[in-house]
Amino acid sequence: MTFTESLPTLNAFLNGTATILLTLGFVFIKSGKELAHRRCMISAFTVSVVFLFFYLLHKWLVQGVHTPFEGEGLWRTFYYVMLISHILLAMLIVPLVLTTLTLAIKDRRERHKKWARWTFPIWYYVSVTGVLIYLFLYVWW
């Protein structure tokens, strides 16, 4: 397996790691463990930045060529609905995460909480569907 061929697996691993960190961050803030929450969310952000670097590198190395989905019927419909929603929300999540993180760093807690109520579920969805898209393309079909 070449470096380029291994990048989708690395990216799925990074997305999965981000999902775990987001889950832990959510659990920690709900249980009042603010420092643990902060560490998890900064780690999730860092992992997501590394993911974005390798994702863009992969797209550049394969010159934008995408992997076709081999499933049929309802699976194909499900996959493309998930893919389209993933792509649209992935574009939206970047400014949402940056704004939410900036508000936290500036200790603007109330505004941070308001933004996080929208940012967290979208970021979580993008992270989980990123792993699912990998599984659909490279493992299950």
Compose a concise summary of this entry.
The chain has 141 residues and is mostly helical.
* Number of DSSP E strands: 0
Rg estimate, integer Å: 16 Å
Q: If helices are DSSP runs of H or I spanning 4 or more residues, what is the number of helices?
A: 4
Secondary-structure content class: mainly alpha
Tell me the quaternary state: single chain
Tell me roughly what share of residues is in helical segments.
Answer: over 70%
On the 0 to 100 scale, the average pLDDT is 96
N- to C-terminal distance: 18 Å
Query: Order of helices and strands, N to C?
Result: HHHH
Folded structure, characterized:
The chain is an all-alpha fold and about 140 residues long. Helices cover about 85% and strands about 0% of the residues. It is built from 4 helices and no strands. Helix 1 runs antiparallel to helix 2 and helix 1 packs antiparallel against helix 4. The chain is elongated. The protein starts with a helix and ends with a helix. The mean pLDDT is about 95.
